Amino acid sequence: MKLKLWTVGAALVLAAVGGAAWWLSRPAPPAAFPEEYRFESVKIVATVAALVEMPEADDVTLVGAGARALAGYFENAGLAVVTNAADVPRTDIVVVSGAEKPDWKRLAAQVSDDGELVWLFDVRQMTAGAFKRALAAIPGEDVHLWMPGENDWVLTARQKAVRRDLGDMLEVFSRESAFADLAKAECETLPDLLANYVGTREEVMPALVGDLRQEIRPEFLVPQEIPTIGWIDADNVDADINEMIGQQFHSVQFDRRTVLEGNILARDRAQLPQAFDKWAAALRHNPHDTLLLGRLHSLAVNAATFLKVGNVKAAAHCYEAMIAIRPTDAAAISEYGKCQLMLGNREVADQAKRRAEELIK
Predict the structure, then answer these.
(1) pLDDT above 90 covers what percent of the chain?
(2) pTM summary value
(3) Strand bridging mode 152-158 / 197-200
(4) In Å, how far are 56, 93, 111, 285 from 82, measured between CA atoms?
(5) Contact criterion met (CB below 8 Å) for 212 and 129
(6) Under a CB-based contact definition with an 8 Å cutoff, are residues 48 and 172 in contact?
């Protein structure tokens, strides 16, 4: 088959042909997710979510391997980092990681008055019932859910309901030492971050009803209606800026729902082409959606893994899917061309090489 790569339509044809084979052959997620493979943008976004929830924080305690992996990002944002709770009696923020139920009583004692607890956890193989119990267990009146990744979620909690000053939240994105981290995660503005916001505990809990034995998924908890954020105080920010952020928030939340529609479609291999359409549309509108960037990252990791074991055809299917989602991805097109060359399809390989060079220019 002769394939061209320089139109969106052609890329989607590639995905329709190869996507099902890739989807069936992709590696299954490990039962115990190793921290070193967590998408870096998820770690940065988790850090920033904790900071905008408590922008006045001066220090943070990190408990668990996943939490300790955030140390550099917190330091770059200007916080003193503690990895041994015995060193400092209490800190403004305490971040804990891991799928096991944390010892909330002990952790709450490590948080300063009106401080913040943050749980970064992996929901792979977590049932909806287990998540409901976890959501109910975290102490505090002011509990919020964030979803920077399909499986990597963040719960933040403060003992009393507090309205966060919008100006202080915006200041988090102006800390010069954190610029590089924000750029790496493509989370350089408050609306970029707010794409990952789901809602308060009170808003999320009603969705957790019925048979809760199935594995928890993002779309279970994201309502069709875009939420309001009543815990942001915009009184000290110009009305025009507040209105602009509100409009951008609505836009990125709409795009996140498009991403989740694609996720639902992708669970039926017959609807993979429609899923790629959804993801591509979402990425065109918001090229910074962390959840969708995480999917592209997973595809790239899978492709590299397949190449290491000599499964070039499966690797090519991964790159086809990446091109279907982001047709201007020069790196994916270049790697796809290399795969086609190894498979003996020189004409397609040459087309891919030319297209990648055009995009790079």
Answers:
(1) 84
(2) 0.89
(3) unpaired
(4) 17, 10, 12, 39
(5) yes
(6) yes
